[in-house]
Amino acid sequence: MTALTADETPIPAEAEPAELKGGDSVYRHRWSTRLWHWFNALTVFVLLMSGLMIFNAHPRLYWGEYGANADTPWLVIGSTPTTGFLRIGAVQIPTTGVLGRWKDGEGNVRTHAFPGWATIPSSYNLAGARSWHFLFAWLLVVPGLAYWLWSFFNRHIQRDLAPKKGELAPRHIWHDVKEHARLRFPKGPAARNYNILQKISYLGVLFFLLPLVVLTGLTMSPGMNAAWPWLLDLFGGRQSARSLHFIAAFMILGFIIVHLLMVLLAGPINEVRSMITGRYRLPEETEPLPETQP
Amino acid sequence: MIEKMSRRRLIGSLGAGASGLLLAGCDRVGRSPAFQGLQASAEDWTLGAQRLITDRTALAREFTPEQMSPTFRTNGNVMPASAAYQAHVGSKFADWRLVVDGQVARPLALSLDQIRRMPARSQITRHDCVEGWSAIGKWTGVPLKLLLDGAGVKPSARYIVFHCADDFRGTPYYESIDLVDAYHPQSILAWGMNDAMLPIGHGAPLRLRVERQLGYKQAKYVMRVEAVDSLAGMGAGKGGYWEDVAGYQWYAGI
């Protein structure tokens, strides 16, 4: 065996007090999770923003094998001489100033779908956006696969992410939903492990959204269509895959927004520090007594 | 209240400033030669990975007539501006010749009639524009392999270049593919589209179909097929019009 085996991967339970209480510092995130997290924070944003620029080249989405200007899209971002709009099915939403019609840094009116502050590069450049997107796609997929395999090997997925017995019971999930809605987060030893909503979210991103976004991305490649024609059957054609790619990307963006919100609500310094050093301070069960404050 | 507003404004402008800096940073990084070199490497990884998992003769999907797009839009140039091309349109391409030359043993000059009398292949395939749209149409033409074998491509050849009649502001359109794609069974020079003669808007008299790549590789108005050992001396050396002027990827299989 090599020097570092799964069993030796440091989650040093013995280094922690037997009875955990609020205020205790615990080792929460392994180096692999921390490294992948920060690497992905960069990669996913570059992919999202370069993807929006690629979308700007043809800001319409279709279902099926084909789809072009004469065909009916299910989503369009467009403009009139005075307004910008987003149309989904029969519903048209005015988006002037943000989507379809907006002003760039110099105050010039632009009619591309997504505005310059949301895209890489910031001004229209399909070829450049593709270069960014395809480089960072490699940086998403190769480390992502490595993290997948490593997290099975060191039992991160089985130990920390797989729901425990009883956690998937509707009553338990509903209880956690209510607690989250009241912004009451686990404290003390209960905060040692992920709660069920976290587990579902992380597993959903790892094993559903990321594979979906990668596979639908590959389905848009005519070369991959020849290599793996089953991709076209799986997603119902290239234009369906393009639509699903866009939807999956926005679901990932939705995850990031909720994730950042939760970090802010749960104590941003403690959370960010734990993702840098690995060590997490369990939140106190009760408010600190007034006399403990200076 | 005033203090609150100014603080909010301060945070807002700090946020805008940070995102502006980040974006400006991305734009600057994107223009740096080192980063562009890295992006070019990613293109090589993509080509290598796709070639690794794809059989040389793996076919692009072919569709049934019912699956064809009701309307197949045109794009790029739809009418070459040159007087020579206009004259060919006037004479219905009667005096037009396709030249096959370069690193070949027997250069050819073939009339449209000669090409149409050669064995033909029809295929209903999906055309994918780099912009993101797709259209399904039927293409009929001579397999490129027959022309290349007829001319006798020399062992020194590495790429096949397609010189076109159209131009953008005086810069002629051209494209190139490697020999793996040139000899692929679905690589044809199409003279027919959707069971009719190839329309001018779609590239009459001949248009390349190289079905495992994107639309800008499907050169229209092909006048000359040249076998070369290097792309360096042509245009800006990147192997095609859009590659030269806008930095589009030479390998358009993705």
Characterise this structure.
The complex is a heterodimer of chains A (294) and B (254). Chain A is of the alpha+beta class. Chain A has a single domain (23-70, 119-284), classed as Up-down Bundle (Fumarate Reductase Cytochrome B subunit). Helix content of chain A is 50%, strand content 9%. Chain A has nine helices and eight strands. Chain A has helices spanning 31-56, 126-153, 156-161, 170-181, 196-219, 222-227, 230-235, 238-266, 268-277; strands spanning 25-27, 60-61, 75-79, 84-88, 91-94, 102-103, 109-110, 279-281. In chain A, the strands form three sheets. Chain A has a four-stranded antiparallel sheet. Chain A has a two-stranded antiparallel sheet with strand order 1-8. A two-stranded antiparallel sheet of chain A has the order 6-7. With 254 residues, chain B is α+β, with helices and mostly antiparallel strands. Chain B folds into two domains: 24-53; 60-246, Sulfite Oxidase, Chain A, domain 2 (Alpha-Beta Complex), CATH 3.90.420.10. Helices cover 33% and strands 25% of the residues of chain B. Chain B is built from seven helices and ten strands. In chain B, the strands form two sheets. In chain B, strands 2-1-10-5-6 form a five-stranded mixed sheet. In chain B, strand 7 and strand 8 (196-197) form a beta hairpin. In chain B, 39% of the residues are buried. Mean pLDDT of chain B is 93; it is low at 1-5. Chains A and B meet through helix 1, helix 2, helix 6 and helix 8 of A and helix 1, helix 2 and strand 4 of B.
